[in-house]
Specification:
With 132 residues, the chain is an all-alpha fold. The protein is built from six helices and no strands. Pfam families: MadL (PF03817).
């Protein structure tokens, strides 16, 4: 049952990695720049849309919730494979990218929280307003 929803996650990961690799090529860095982040953003924005269209069965929602719970260990494992020393020796782009991403995340916290409203979860455990 857990395997449901993996296709959605996989598609988001492939698209996010492609965006990250393209961004790396455009910036002259032979590496993935933010591919996981792009994938997670894509998942955050696509999943509610797919669910609203009725294209996401309950089993797939449960599968995505399982992988959502596994997200932190997966990200830590992925971060452990990054070569931070090599990135920092490449020049100021690592510092600029790090600082810029933190600033953008700080700026986006309030609008994203406002968009989420009173809900604290992305999907799965919320109730429809008309059914509540």
């Amino acid at each position: 049952m857990i395997i449901y929803g993996v296709m959605v996650l996989g598609l988001c990961m492939f698209i996010g990695t492609a965006i990250g690799l393209t961004l790396g090529i455009l910036l002259g860095i032979p590496s993935d720049i933010g591919g996981v982040g792009f994938a997670m953003l894509l998942l955050v924005f696509v999943t509610p849309w797919v669910k609203a269209k009725g294209w996401l069965p309950k089993a797939s929602e449960d599968g995505i919730m399982f992988w959502n719970a596994m997200y932190i260990p997966v990200v830590i494992a992925m971060a452990a494979t990054q070569n931070v020393a090599a990135a920092l020796s490449g020049g100021w782009i690592a510092f600029i990218a790090g600082i810029l991403s933190v600033v953008v995340c700080f700026v986006l916290i309030r609008p994203l929280a406002a968009m989420a409203g009173a809900a604290t979860s992305t999907f799965g455990d919320e109730t429809e307003p008309s059914k509540a």
